[in-house]
Write a structure and sequence with these properties.
Strand content: 15-25%
Number of strands: 7
Bound molecules: S-adenosyl-L-homocysteine
Largest sheet: 5 strands, mixed, barrel
Length: about 250
Amino acid sequence: MAPPHGDKSAKVKEEAAAAVSSVDNRPISTILFIVAMQTEALPLVKKFQLTEDLNSVFPKGVPWVRFYGVDGVGTVSASLVTYASVQALQPDLIINAGTAGGFGAKGASIGDVFISSEVAFHDRRIPIPVFDIYGVGSRKALATPNLLKELNLKVGKLSTGDSLDMSPMDEASIIANDATIKDMEGAAVAYVADLLKVPAIFLKAVTDIVDGDKPTPEEFLENLAAVTAALDRTATQVVDYISGKCLLEL
Ligand code: SAH
């Protein structure tokens, strides 16, 4: 979802695509939120008084930007919607806001909102030199030292895979990724953001403790509403902080 687009001319858009670095010096005006689930998105839609785009910029039949329909969970959906949204909206910044599982042993608790310093995949195992690194697809998020200081958010690495559960092999990769939180979209958003040279940050609120006692699906559903409310509060603070600033000030 994204705020209604301003009056950027085609020329300005072209220039923005060609010279991304010049964006660093001017106030951020367009932020693209990529949110996987309707429940996660609705508080933000309400908070920022976003309206549904009835003349969707997306192809007919897809559920994106319609605030009803099927949730788009996982990497395939996240990368497609990120690509299509960036093409359509040319944002200055992407915020991937959503929920995640947290590792208690790494200091995560239910309701914590993390900013991820780095994201990587944990279910793309390709044990061939060079392809192994491609599979892990580790990428750094936009550094936001001032934002972190101001909002006092927790920082941790995020590991992404297409399953809510955690197989022993996934667990080994998550440990290798040194991750504190695990989700199903972050690294896919980072991949597209990197391809299209749009800076991205990852705001993830912890719905379940992966190394705790409770079964993940139950714990996730039990905490989803309260945790998305916390995510909404933090996302609002983040947008308020960003307002009027340029990328280098974050
Ligand atoms: N819509 C389904 C499934 C949600 S999947 C349902 O309601 O049952 C969970 C979503 O929350 C994904 O978008 C994922 O990014 C995030 N998530 C929360 N906890 C997670 C965990 N432990 N592992 C992976 N993803 C998690």
